């Protein structure tokens, strides 16, 4: 018969801690040392705090004196803020030819910059054709040139490496996706406000002209 066990997601607190002794940490992070759990509970009660088991797998388990209710509230707030600010970072892909002219290089570099400014990662790919495979150093040189061009907006996350007939490099944005989304939203609101202001000015000029 299979035994199912409930997964405990919250730490044990106060009288739920059923071990003879704990390595106690004070409310400011100070190391108190190994004490009997009864003594740790007494210290918690005297300080009007909770005894919280923070490292149950340690020997002995580590417990900390803290305001557990406040701790739970702050943790929940951080998780909510993280979810609110989180946006899925996409991986875009741009292909370069080894023998690319300056105009095409600038155009594709502009695409990479646009993706990075939008908060997305970019996989830059060079596909080698024929004898080009014997000159991988040229691919590295081209990708290093690109990395220098986009350094204001992104940094190299994965350096150039060969994968069959392809050489790949991944660049990551310097700012988070959520920041880019928020900035784009703010800019759209500014544009709408500017348009409303212009419409208001035209309306006022029309009204004055009619009055005259």
TrEMBL record:
Any Pfam family from its record, for instance, is IF3_C
Question: Which residues lie in Basic and acidic residues bias regions?
Answer: 176-212
Where, subcellularly, is it found?
Cytoplasm
Q: Name one GO biological process term.
A: ribosome disassembly
Database matches in InterPro entries = T_IF-3_C_sf, T_IF-3_N_sf, Translation_initiation_fac3_CS, Translation_initiation_fac_3, Translation_initiation_fac_3_C, Translation_initiation_fac_3_N
Gene3D superfamilies xref list: Translation initiation factor 3 (IF-3), C-terminal domain, Translation initiation factor 3 (IF-3), N-terminal domain
Where is the stretch described as Disordered?
174-212
Report if keyword Protein biosynthesis is assigned: yes
Report if keyword S-adenosyl-L-methionine is assigned: no
Q: Which UniProt key words apply to this protein?
A: Cytoplasm, Initiation factor, Protein biosynthesis
Give GO terms: molecular function aspect only: ribosome binding; translation initiation factor activity
Query: Translation initiation factor 3 C-terminal domain: from which residue to which, for each copy?
Result: 89-173
Q: Which residues form the Translation initiation factor 3 N-terminal domain?
A: 13-82
Identify the GO cellular component terms for this protein.
cytosol; membrane
Q: What does this protein do?
A: IF-3 binds to the 30S ribosomal subunit and shifts the equilibrium between 70S ribosomes and their 50S and 30S subunits in favor of the free subunits, thus enhancing the availability of 30S subunits on which protein synthesis initiation begins.
Identify its protein family. Belongs to the IF-3 family.
Summarize subunit and interaction data from the UniProt record for this chain: Monomer.
Q: What is this protein called?
A: Translation initiation factor IF-3
What is the organism field in this record?
Boudabousia marimammalium
């Amino acid at each position: 018969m299979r035994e199912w066990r409930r997964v405990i997601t919250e730490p044990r607190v106060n009288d739920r801690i059923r071990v003879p002794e704990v390595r106690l940490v004070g409310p400011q992070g100070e190391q108190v040392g190994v004490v009997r759990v009864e003594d740790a509970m007494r210290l918690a009660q005297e300080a009007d705090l909770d005894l919280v088991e923070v490292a149950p797998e340690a020997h002995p388990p580590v417990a900390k004196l803290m305001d557990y209710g406040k701790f739970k509230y702050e943790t929940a707030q951080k998780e909510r803020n993280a979810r609110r600010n989180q946006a899925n970072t996409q991986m875009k892909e741009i292909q370069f030819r080894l023998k690319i002219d300056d105009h095409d290089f600038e155009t594709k570099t502009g695409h990479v910059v646009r993706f990075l400014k939008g908060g997305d990662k970019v996989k830059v790919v060079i596909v080698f054709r024929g004898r080009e495979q014997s000159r991988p150093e040229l691919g590295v040189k081209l990708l290093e040139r690109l990395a220098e061009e986009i350094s204001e907006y992104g940094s190299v996350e994965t350096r150039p490496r060969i994968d069959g007939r392809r050489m790949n490099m991944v660049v990551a944005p310097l700012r988070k996706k959520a920041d880019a989304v928020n900035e784009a939203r703010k800019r759209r609101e500014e544009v709408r406000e500017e348009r409303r202001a212009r419409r208001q000015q035209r309306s006022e000029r029309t009204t004055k002209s009619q009055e005259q």
